[in-house]
Amino acid sequence: MAAKILMVTGDAAESLEVLYPYQRLREEGYDVHIAAPTRKKLQFVVHDFEPGFDTYTEKPGYTWPADLAFADVDPGQYVALVVPGGRAPEYLRGDPELRKILKAFFDADKPVAQICHGPLLTAAVGALAGRRVTAYPALELDMQTAGATYQDAEAVVDGTLVSARAWADHSGWMREFLTVLRAKAPVT
Predict the structure, then answer these.
(1) N or C: which end of the chain has fewer CB within 10 A?
(2) What is the pLDDT of residues 57-82, one digit of tens each?
(3) What's phi and psi for 160, nearest 5 deg?
(4) Could you write out the three-class secondary structure of the chain?
(5) What is the pLDDT at residue 1?
(6) Is the pTM of this model over 0.70?
(7) Of the candidates 149, 154, 161, 166, which has an alpha carbon nearest to the alpha carbon of residue 115?
(8) Would you say the C-alpha torsion 34, 3, 80, 170 has a positive or negative sign?
(9) Are 70 and 98 in contact (CB under 8 A)?
(10) Cα(146)–Cα(120) distance, integer angstroms
């Protein structure tokens, strides 16, 4: 049986930040499950930059089914966690079931990959204090407020935590995360 990886997300997650790691980790031989507030078809979004805008724009992206609800997750069944970005983390960080899941992964020192706005979730459970991270650049102050040292880099590895700024950093992010996974939770 393949080692299982959990991905936590919801509506308005950035399409590329869900689907790229989902496919890449499956390609590597891991069994990836997507959890959301409820088991339903999720509506992802596409964030991009347009001339004249001071920030990114948001357009409808792909839809994808959640495999299970946060309340149905047993963190002990998973070897690692992936936390995509997009707008989803802004509202998901208030979900008590999700906070239990996040805390369980950090308490067990399991590999965690986070990208873009995903660190808003890990910050919500106090898991970034004393760590080095990167995130979407607009979150630099949020990361510092969470007690982290922000680094503007393609991928930052701090123990079993691997973070990236945004989807343009996917290859570096997944390369570093797979290095951690192969050491801590190899495919069997």
Answers:
(1) N
(2) 899 999 999 999 999 999 999 999 99
(3) -95, 5
(4) CCCEEEEECCCCEEHHHHHHHHHHHHHHCCEEEEEECCCCEEEEEEEECCCCCCCCEEEEEEEEECCEEHHHCCHHHCCEEEECCECHHHHHCCCHHHHHHHHHHHHCCCCEEEECCCHHHHHHCCCCCCCEECCCHHHHHHHHHCCCEECCCCEEEECCEEEECCHHHHHHHHHHHHHHHHHHCCCC
(5) 72
(6) yes
(7) 166
(8) negative
(9) yes
(10) 9
Distances (CA, A) of 58 to 46, 78, 127: 6, 32, 29
What pLDDT sits at residue 114?
A: 98
Point out the residues of the chain with pLDDT beneath 70.
none
Q: Which two tokens stand for residue 178?
A: 């797979």
Residues with active-site annotation: 116-117
* Spatial CB neighbours of 74, under 8 Å, sequence gap ≥ 6: none
User: How much is the pLDDT for 169?
Assistant: 98
